[in-house]
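Honest question from a wet-lab person: if I give you the sequences of every part of a complex, can you actually get the arrangement of the whole thing, not just the pieces? Trying it with mine:
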Amino acid sequence: MYHKLERILPNVRKPARYTGGEYNQIIKNPDETEIRVALCFPDIYDIGMSNLGMRILYGVINKMPGVWCERVFEPWSDMAAALRENNIPLYGLESGDPIKDFDMLGFSVGYELSYPGILNILDLAGIPLKSRDRTGLAPIIFAGGTCMYNPEPLADFIDIAVIGEGEELDLELIELYRRAKRANWSKERFLAEAAGIDGVYVPSLYHVEYNEDKTIKSITPKKPAPPVVKKRIVQELDKSWFPVDTIVPSTEIVHDRTVLELFRGCIRGCRFCQAGYVYRPVRSKSREVLVKQAADALENSGYQELNLASLSTSDYRELGALCDDLLDWCEPRNISLSLPSLRADNFSMELLDRVQRVRKSGLTFAPEAGSQRLRDVINKNVTEEDILSACRTAFAGGYNAVKLYFMIGLPTETDEDILGIVTLAKKVLGVFKESAKNKNRGVRITVSTSCFVPKPMTPFQWEKQDTPEEFERKQQLIKDNLRTRAIHYSWHNPQVSLIEAVLARGDRRTGAVLEAVYKKSGGLQAWDECFSYDAWRSAFEEIGINPSFYAHRERSYDEILPWSVISAGINKEHLIRESKLAKQGKTTPDCRQRCSGCGANSLMKGLSCDG
Amino acid sequence: MGKTRLRFSKTGKAKYISHLDLMRTFQRAFMRAKVGIKHTEGFNPHAYISIILPLALGCESICEVLDVEITDQTPVSLIPERLNPCLPEGIEVVSAFEPIKKPGELKYLRFRSKYMYEDGNTGPNARHIKDKLHDFFRHDTLAVIKKTKRRQSAFDLKPYIKTMDIRAGQGESLTIEAVVSAQNPSVSPALLRMAIDQLEPSLSPSFFEDKRIEIYDSNMNIFK
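Yes, you can. This is the full assembly:
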C-alpha cells in the first residue's frame, strides 16, 4: 500500500497531508482491535484538521477499549485523480489500511457544499454510495454535525444521522455496533436497535409521501423509529472530555493553533443564525477548567497561539479575568491570544489590550445589516453607535485595519438597507480620520457581504432567498456607491449561495443531484476553483428538480418541512413567534436579560441554562 | 546553554514534510520538550531556528543540521533524548553539540540516488544504462539550463561533482552515489537528473529515491 503511494506522492501538492505520522496520532495494534472506525471529513486535510469537533471525537472514540478510530479527509483533486488512476483505495491516515474494510465510517458534516465530498470519499474508498446497496453489517455509514438538522438530502446514502453533540451519542452507537458484530446481527436488526438510541435518526425507517404541488404530505416512521428525534447534548461541559493531547499536523493547516472552547450555545438569538439556535442551551466551562485545559493543550502541542472559540466569545461571563489568567501563563512563553470575532456592543480597550499583548491580529466586526431597521428584523441587537465606538477604540489603539461583515438578501430588505452598508462603511472611515493614532499609515476597511441562506431550525426557515440576479444587482449597487480607495469590497458568489439554500432545506429528492454533481465535478464544491454551477444546473435539469422550489419559495407555517422529524429542542411556537416579531421589526432581548422560552432548557437534566 | 547544533535524520513519511513546515515542527517540538530557545524580537516573535542546507521535498536524509540558541540550562547532551519523543514519525535527532564550523564552511554533500527503470519489456536494461550513465557523467561539461521566473541561464555542473559511483542494483535499478558541492553553488540530486533529462533523456529514470548521506567541510572532514 505505502509502496504504491510513494510513487504518486512526489507529484501531488502538499503530500504531507496524505501520509499520517504526525505528532500525537493514535496507533493501535489491529490484532487487538475489535472495531475499526474511520472519522471522515468531507473536505481536505487543511480544513478538517482545523475542526475542533473532529479532534474531540477522535479522542473520545479512541479512548474506547478495542476501538481504533482513524482520520480520513477528502484528497485534493490531483491526489484524487492519482489514487483513481493507480487503483489505490482511500485509506485511514494512521494505518494506511483501506477504509472499505472498516466497521464504521462517521462523517462530520458542517456545510452543505461538502455533501458531494461524502460521495467522493465513498467512491474513492470503493464503497457503494447508496445505503440500500450496502447489505452487510459493515461498513455502517453515519453522519453528524450541524447539517444533520436536515439530513434529508443525504437520506439515500447514509445509514444513520446522529443529531446533536457526539461525545456520548457516538460512543453509544459504537457500543451497540460492538454487540451487533459479536452477535452477528443483520444490518436491518442493527439499524432498528440503533433507532432506539436517543438522538439517532435512521432515514430508511421513515416513509415520505408528497402532495401534487411537490410539498411533503406526510412523514411516517416505521416501527420502532420514534416520531421525533431530539438532539443530544452534553450536560456539564466542565466534565466532558476535551482534547489536550491533539494531533499536531506536520504541514500548515488553516487554523494552526490551539482552540479552547469557552462555552456552547449563544445568548443572542440572531434570527438568521442556525448555530445560535441549534447549539442551545448555553453551557459554559468554568475559568479554572479553561485555564488548566489551555495550559495542558499548549504544552502538549507546542502551539504559540491560543484561540478562544465560541459562537460569541465576548459573552463569556468572566472573559476579562479569564484573559488575565491565560496571559499570566502565555505571555512569558510568547504565546498570543486570539478571538474569532467580536461583538461591537461589548468591545473594550482592555480586551483589545489583552488580545494584542503578544501578537497583533486583525479585527472583525459583523454588523450583518446596514440599517438599524434591518438589524432589528434579524435581532442583531447592535447599534450603529456600538459599531462606530468599537472602531474608534480600535483605531485609537493603533489598529488600521477593520473588517466589516454583512449579509445581503435578508427578509424585508430594501435598497435603502443596502445603501446603509455603504453609509456605515463611510462613517467608519470618518471615525478613522477623527481618531486614528497614526493616520499616515492609512487605513484599510474591508466590507464583505455574504448572501443570506435561510436555514432549518431558525425563525427564517420559512423565508425565501433572493435570486442570484437580485443578489448581483444588490452587489452592483454597493460597488457603484463604494468608490473609495480606503474601502475594499468583497462579496460571495450568489450561485454558491443558491446551491447552499437548496441543500439546506432540501428533501430526499435532492439526493440524486449530489450524485450527479460529484460525478461531473468532483467533491470539493466548497472551493471556488472546483465549484461548478453548470454541473449543478445540469444535474437539476436531468433529475427534474427546480432549485427555485427549495430556494425561492416562501413556506407557510403549517407546511410539513423535510426536517420535521428532527428536533433541536426549540419549540416551533417560539420560532413562529420570532418570525412574526421579525416581520414587525421588533427585537427580542438576549437570554440573560429575559428568557424568551425557546424550550432549549428542557434539554438540561436538573441543571439550568447558562448556569 | 548557548549556540547549539543538532544533527538529525528525516526519513520515511517525514520526507514529505516541506522545509518551512519542518522549521515549524522543530519550533513546536522545542516548546513541547520545554527546551527554551531564542526568539526573534518584535511584533511577531518566533523561534530562531536555522537549517543550514534546506532539503528538497521527497528527499530523505541522515545528515541534516540545524542551529538554535538554547536559552535555558538544558545540558546539550540531553537534547536528543528530550526532543525525540516530541517529534513526528521519521524525524530523529541523533546528536547535539556546540558548533565547530561556521555554516558557510559546509562544502560537500554525499548523496545516494536510486534510479528505477520500469518501462517493462520495451525499456532499456539497467546494466546497459549503467554504462551509458557512466559515460554521460564523464563528459567534460554538463551544462544545464536553469529556468527561473524571469530568466534562464546555463550552468555547468561538471566542475562541482567531486566523485561519482554508479552501481547496478536489484532488478531494473541503479544506485548513484556522488559527492557534490553543497552550497555556492549547490548541486542537488534533482539537478543531476535535470542534466540527464535535458542532455540525454533516454537515460531518465521512471522513478527515483534520493537520500543525503553525509556533509563535509572543504577538507572532506565531516561537518560539525
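Two things worth pointing out. The longest helix of chain A spans residues 415-435. The domain at 2-230 of chain A is CATH 3.40.50.280 (Rossmann fold).
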